[in-house]
Amino acid sequence: MYNIEIFSTDFMYKDSTTVNRCDYVNDYIVVSPTVIRAPQVKCDRGDYISMEDLSSRKKDWGYVCGIERTDDVTEISVMPFLGKMDVDVYKDREDLKHMTCERFLAELIRLAYAGDDVEQNIPGLEIIAETGTEGALLNLKDNVHNIYDVALAALKKYHITITFDIKVREKRVYAKIRRATEKCATVEADLSCVTDVSVNLVDTYEMVNKVTIYGSYQETHEKYGTVETVTYYLEPGGTVTMDPQERITPVVWTIKQIEINDDFEAEAWEVAYDTLYREEVDNNIELCVEKSGGMIDPAQFEVGQSVCVIYQGSQYATIYTGYEMSGDKAKMIFGAIRTEYTKKSRINRRLQNGN
What we know:
Blueprint: E1 2-7, E2 13-19, E3 24-27, E4 34-39, E5 48-53, E6 59-69, E7 73-80, E8 88-90, H1 101-113, E9 125-129, E10 144-146, H2 147-158, E11 160-167, E12 172-179, E13 185-188, E14 194-201, E15 210-217, E16 227-234, E17 240-241, E18 253-260, H3 264-276, E19 283-290, E20 306-311, E21 314-326, E22 329-334, H4 341-353
Parallel strand pairs: 9-12, 13-20, 15-18
Antiparallel strand pairs: 1-2, 1-5, 3-21, 4-7, 5-6, 6-7, 8-10, 11-12, 14-19, 15-16, 16-17, 19-22, 20-21, 21-22
Helix pairs in contact: 1-2
């Protein structure tokens, strides 16, 4: 059983109902709407909606992005709150060098939804950076940033997530930015409570393992006309270095050209790291589990948490990135690789958000 509650954006109660089944997807990598079928309820686009599993007391918040009504059923399209991050803001990318990654994300959200434009703001928004990750390298291309794209980069490299919670009585929307627990969870996919397993790995045979970077200075720089160059390599263990102790073969290389702002060494390293770094999220593992099984409880996992999945004698390093609730089953989603559906979903999401 699920309890559905609907509130306006100024936290006024509008309606509620109870449904036997609530199929809902919350995937950090592919943020897209889920359609919930409920008896006739009062709701409008933009309203906040909570879906609470009465057995586990787990509650998800989203917002209404579409409504279709028939005589006795309301079909509500619900977007996870993370969908509001698919917007662009302007902020000097150099600021990231002087603040934590979490604070940088907090500033982006503040610029979008807690600025001077009251009509654009999210009422009651409180942004909290709960952890602090120094020296983050996100390879920001310019000073215009899509918040969701930056959030994805922060998740993949540093396990940093943005989560939302609404406290109606407090009239607050909390955006919490934090690095996931460093504790690595172990999941045995061969347990009897796991009813289906899907493992998709990236073929690394033809992935780039060497990058040469050429840098030229801007006209205003005293070194204008000078070309700097450096080559970085990826070692089998995942280290990015200029002096590899062991090489990956076959050699797959690429060349990058950059315009140097000030420090070629630092700027080239960021490009090399972004080009060569292989993440533990470069896979897609899905486990379908029985919610009442007890041996694997999705509610005990934190998005962004490192996970070791053991299946048929093999171990797969990954991270937890989402879940799908469907009746008495829950699909746990790991890794950041998705199919072509990911690109289509991003386009559809932008259309849903009007962006």
